[in-house]
Amino acid sequence: MDIYTSYPSNTYKRNGEHILISLTYLAKHTDENTGLGLMRELEQWRRYLNEMGIVSILVINDGYFIQNFQGPRPEVNKALSRIVSDYPQISPQVVEVKEIDECQWNGYLIRHLTTSVEDEEHTLKYFSAGHDFNPYMMSNAQIDGFLNAVFKDKKSQGSVR
After folding, report:
1. Per-residue pLDDT tens over the stretch 20-44
2. Signal sequence span per UniProt (predicted)?
3. Are strands 108-112 and 55-60 parallel, antiparallel or unpaired?
4. pLDDT category of residue 157 using cuts at 50, 70 and 90
5. What is the pLDDT of residues 66-123, one digit of tens each?
6. DSSP code for 92
7. Rounded CA gap, 151 and 47, in Å?
8. Spatial distance between the Cα atoms of 39 and 12, rounded to a whole number of angstroms
9. What's 10's DSSP letter?
10. Do 147 and 24 touch, CB atoms closer than 8 A?
11. Which of 48, 49, 120, 146 is such that its CA lies 20 to 30 A from the CA of 105?
12. Sequence spans of domains, the chain
């Protein structure tokens, strides 16, 4: 019996739905997306990602943002495709894609960086490659460490599938 006949057709996943991935990208924050308009867009994205079964973390400041999606491979690819088509002005750069066993985050989490002492400690002292926060100057290891430090108390308590 081969693999195609050993599973009922409704449970065999042909598009990789059973494979979870983590995708991280960087982009430049544009001045046109600020204030109330930005808050509305972020809420729309929260609902969209929730419907898709994707968890996400987003770090944003006045110049840049870093976002990580985790979820089923086809859905994460759909979300990235939508970002590329809906927001061509931000020119997202994918910095890491990897398969994961379970989702690390719980829901849709956002952190807006300010000039506070705590934020400066995270961004400049430990993870930045220069005097100003610029994720384009950070290595993948620095980005991963930075995201884990910023959201250290927000990790999922179990697997999300």
Report:
1. 999 999 998 766 656 777 788 889 9
2. none
3. parallel
4. very low
5. 999 999 999 999 999 999 998 888 889 999 999 999 999 989 999 887 766 555 555 5
6. -
7. 20
8. 39
9. T
10. yes
11. 120
12. 16-150
**Residue type (1 letter), 130:** G
| Residue with tokens 């859905």, as numbered in its chain | 75
Which two three-digit tokens encode residue 104? 């690390």
Q: How many CB atoms lie within 10 A of CB 105?
A: 21
Q: Is 118 exposed, middle or buried (0-12, 13-18, 19+ CB in 10 A)?
A: exposed
CATH class for the domain made up of 16-150: alpha beta
The Cα–Cα gap between 119 and 116 comes to 5
Q: What is the pTM of this model?
A: 0.79
